[in-house]
Amino acid sequence: MSEKTWRGIRKIAVIGAGAMGAFYAAKFFDMDPGSVFLIANGERYTRLKSGGIVVNGKRYDIRVKAPAEGTDPFDLILCAVKHHQLDSAIEDMRPLVGDDSIIISVMNGIDSEKRIEAALGKGKVLLCAAVGIDAVRDENSVTYSKEGKLVFGEAYNASLSEHVLRLQNLFIRTRIPNEIPQDMTRALWWKFMVNVGVNQVSAVLKAPYGVFQRSEDASYLTDMAMMEVIEVARKEGVDLKADDISKWNEVVKGLSPDGKTSMLQDVEAGRRTEVDMFAGRVIELGQKHGLPTPVNQVLYRCIRVIESGF
Known about the structure:
This protein is α/β, with parallel strands linked by helices.
């Protein structure tokens, strides 16, 4: 183990300063203002440099660095961009990565880690999913009432790797609630199942979490979309069950009724959504395994119609 490994994680890069990126950047800043940088180019660089970010009413003037500026490698790189921004984010990461770097993605979906690893090399990427956070972004301001937790690890965690232990130590120091499941692949698919259900239905219905807390009809729609994920997951070797839907329905009860999914926030802001990563991926896997996915077919078309009006 290198000296840097023994020192722990001290230098952190956050790529993407939306609701998730801003939330975690602020947590790292609160631990040590000198530990974290926001990575950005162009107009985003200028905006973050001059305006900072605001989280729950507190302004954070976090240092901003352009990838081309040159730097020593970062201990941790946290990727929090949208699906269609990942390719450019990977290029931004290249000059930041060293031999001991750890990369985590808090993006939605089940494929970002594979794409990052394919581009930047094996042994650096840990699986990660943010669960139960209700952060909402408005311009450079982020508000939240529930911070949820980060579920992370190697694909399997019967014993904990050096990277996992280093990251766990950081989360303890920053007071970020976290969990290391034995089967992280399954946990990642569970989060994907949830996103396919609640993100897409919320975008179509223009519904915050409160609608799903009180409407059986809204919950039924999300349940049916998630059932299609369970079916394709089983064909992919991931043993999701109907009980996993019940687990989500308990989580949503504890979220702010005014909280909004990331896709609803995108729709309201007129931004491109991640429907290709959600319904599009379910449809693709359904075709691969000969499984019908009618609910996701409908959600896909509905969201495409909404996007056409942007």
